[in-house]
Amino acid sequence: MTTKREPTLGEALIPVIFLTILLSINVGIFGDASLDGSNQIVLILSAAVASLVAVRIGFKWEEIQKGIVKSISSAMASILILLMIGALAGTWLLSGVVPAMIYYGLQILNPTIFLFAACIVCAIVSVATGSSWTTSATVGIALIGIGQALGISTGLIAGAILSGAYFGDKMSPLSDTTNLAPAMAGTDLFTHIRYMTITTVPSISIALVLFLIIGFTQTGNGSISETDAILRAIDSRFNINGLLFIVPIAVVVLIVKKMPALPALLIGTLLGAVFALIFQPQLVTEIGGDSGGVGYFVGIMTSMYGDIAITTSDPMVSELLTAGGMKGMLGTIWLILSAMIFGGVMEGSGMLKRIATAIISKVNSVGSLISSTVGTCVFFNVTASDQYLAIVVPGRMYGDIYREKGLAPENLSRSLEDSGTVTSVLIPWNTCGAYHAKVLGVHTLDYLPYCFFNLISPIMTMIVGYTGYKIRKLTEKGA
Question: Is 147 left (phi over 0), alpha (psi -120 to 50) or beta?
Answer without folding.
Answer: alpha
